[in-house]
Amino acid sequence: MTEKVVIERKITLVSGVAIIVGTIIGSGIFISPTGVFVYAESIGVSLMIWALSGLVSALGALCYAELGTLITRSGGDYAYLLVAFGPLAAFLCLWITLVIGRPTILAISAITFSTYAIKPFFPDCEPPDDAVRLLAAICLCFVTAVNCISVNWALRMQNIFTAAKLLALVVIIGFGAYSMATVGVGNFDNMWSGSFSVKSMSLAAYSGLYSFGGWNILNMVTEELQDPYRNLPRAICIAVPIVTVVYVLVNVAYFAVLSKHEILSSLATAVLFGNKMFASVAWIIPIFVALSTFGSINGVILTSARLYAIGAEEHHLPSIFALVHIHKKSPVPSLIISCILALGMLFWRDIIFLINISSIAYWLCITACIAALFWLRRTQPAEHRPIRVNLVIPTVFFLFCCFLVFIPLVTEFWDFLLGIALILTGIPIYYLCIWWQKKPQCLGQANKVFERVSQILFVTAFPDKEE
After folding, report:
1. Integer Cα distance of 117 and 132 in angstroms
2. 386 pLDDT above the threshold of 80
3. What are the helix (H) ranges across 183-278?
4. Nearest Cα to 33, choosing from 259, 277, 283, 267?
5. Under DSSP, is residue 324 helix (H, G, I), strand (E, B) or coil?
6. Between 267 and 281, where is the model more confident?
7. Which secondary-structure segment (H or E) carries 463?
8. Residue 6 — φ and ψ, nearest 5°?
9. Which of 74, 230, 283, 449 is the most buried (most CB within 10 A)?
C-alpha cells in the first residue's frame, strides 16, 4: 500500500455552519436550563446568563477565527499550541483530549441519546441502565461506520440532523409563544428577584457555557474546509448568533409554560415542557432530544479523528492515526480508535466526575490558545492575518477563561487537582515516547506492524499534503 492520497476539501460554508450549530446544540439546551436557574434563582438573570454565554462564545469564536486563518491546518487547539509554544504544550493538549476530553463528550452524548430514545417505551419509569448503554454503544458504532464509509454521507447526515434539531427548537419556541398569547405571562412576574452573589452567578454561567461547547469545532477540520480564509470566519459569525438567539428564545418558552417550582423539580426541562404542552404526544420531546444528541455525536466523531491524524503527522501519536482510506478519503483508523475510546468510557458510571474533569481540561486548552494568539502577535507580527481582531476581544475573553478555569478550585477542588494531575501525566509520556530518540527497536517495529496491518485491513495510505 504505497499509493498516496490527497484529502479533499468537501466542507462547504453550509456544512461548516451545520457542523458548528449541530455540535453546539446537543442535550444541553434540553437539560441545562435547570442548571442555570438553580443558581440564578431568577428568570431575568437566567435569560441574561444565556445571552452573555452566547456573547462570550462569540468573542472566543472571533479569536479562533484569527488563529484558524493564520494557521490553516486542521487540529484546532493542538495545531495552534504546536506553532506558538512547541511540541510539549501541544502534546499535553492532545493527551488530555485523547484520554478524557473527546471520549467523555462522546460517551455522555451517546448515553443521553439512548436514554431519550428509549424513554417513550418506559413512560412510567426510568429505562434500564444496561439497555441505555447498549443502545449508546450501537449509536457510536453506527455513526463511526457512516464516517468511515463516506465523508459526504457524514456531512449530509450532519446537515439533516442540524435542520431537525433546529425544527424541534422552533416548535418549542412556537408553543411557548402560543402559551404567552393564550395563558398570559404571569410566570414572568418578579422576574429579577433571585440570587446575585458572585458564586451563584459564576456557577450559573458555567452551566450556560456548557451548552455552548463546540463553537470552535470547525477549527479541527480547516484543511477540509473550502476556502477557509473566507468560510471559517463566515461559518462562525453565522452559527454562533443563530445558536444564541435560539437558546434565549427556547428559555423564554420554558419560563412561559413552566413555573419556577416545575423547572427546579427535574433536570429534564424539555420533557416537562412536552408533558404540559403536548399531552398525548409528549413522547415527541424525547425524540427531539435524541435527534439533537445524535447530530452532536456525528460532529464530534467527524472532528476528533482529524485531530488525532494531525497528532500522528507530528509523530505525537502512532503513525496508524495518520492513515486515510485510499478511495473514501476518510481517516478510518482514527475514527475506529475514537469509537473504541468512547465505548470504553461507557463503562464509567460516575458521569458527573467525567464532566468536571473534561470541563477543566477544555477551558485550560482554550485559555492556552488565547495566550498563543497574544504570543503569535508578538513573535510573528508580519504574518498575513485575514482576520485580525481588536486586542480588547482576546483580552476580555482570556480573563473570562482564567475565571472559568479557577472556578473548580472553589466548587470541585479535588476534581480540579485530579484534572491537573492527569494533564501532567502527559509530561513523562512525552519524554519517554516522543522526545527519547534511542528507544528499543522493538517499539518501532511494533508500530510498523500496526501500520502495515491497518494499510491492508482498511485499504489506507498516508495522504499527500496540498501544494
Report:
1. 9
2. yes
3. 198-210, 228-257, 260-265, 269-277
4. 267
5. strand
6. 281
7. strand 463-464
8. -115, 130
9. 74
Q: Would you state the cell numbers that stand for residue 17, as one nine-digit string?
A: 455552519
DSSP 315: T
The Cβ of residue 88 has, within 10 Å, a number of other Cβ atoms equal to 17
Angle at 196 between CA 194 and CA 199, to 5 degrees: 120
Q: Which amino acid, residue 377?
A: R
Cβ pair 30, 289 in contact under 8 A: yes
Per the listing, cell 494568539 goes with 373
- Compute the distance between CA of residue 162 and CA of residue 155 in angstroms, rounded to an integer: 10
Confidence (pLDDT) at 352: 64
Residue type, 323: L
Cβ contact 85:372 at 8 Å:
yes
Instruction: Using DSSP, state whether 150 is helix, strand or coil.
Output: coil
C-alpha cell, 226: 473550502
Q: Which three cell numbers, joined as nine digits, stand for 89?
A: 504544550
Sign of the C-alpha dihedral computed for residues 169, 172, 177 and 180 taken in this order: negative
Q: Are 323 and 182 in contact (CB under 8 A)?
A: no
Does residue 178 have a pLDDT over 70? Answer: yes
**C-alpha cell recorded at residue 319:** 503513525
How many CA atoms does the CB half-sphere of 160 hold within 13 Å?
A: 9
Looking at residue 139, its pLDDT comes to 92
Q: What cell does 20 get?
A: 458548528
Residue 350: partners with Cβ closer than 8 Å, 6 or more residues away: none
| 141 confidence band (pLDDT: 50, 70, 90) | very high
Q: What is the largest CA-CA distance in the chain?
A: 76
Residues ≥6 apart with Cβ < 8 Å to 381: none
Strand-pairing partners, residue 315, are: none
DSSP string, 277-302: HTGGGTTHHHHHHHHHHHHHHHHHHH
Q: Is the dihedral of CA 283, 102, 156, 387 positive or negative?
A: positive
What would the pLDDT profile of 277-334 be if each residue is shown by its tens digit? 877 676 777 787 788 788 888 888 877 777 888 888 888 888 888 888 787 777 888 8
Write down the residue that cell numbers 452524548 correspond to. Answer: 109
- Distance between alpha carbon 455 and the CA centroid of its chain, in Å? 30
β-bridge mates for residue 5, sequence order: 463
Angle at CA of residue 163, ends 159 and 167, nearest 5°: 170
Assess contact for 183 and 36: CB atoms under 8 A: no
Does residue 335 surpass a pLDDT of 80? yes
Under DSSP, is residue 193 helix (H, G, I), strand (E, B) or coil? coil
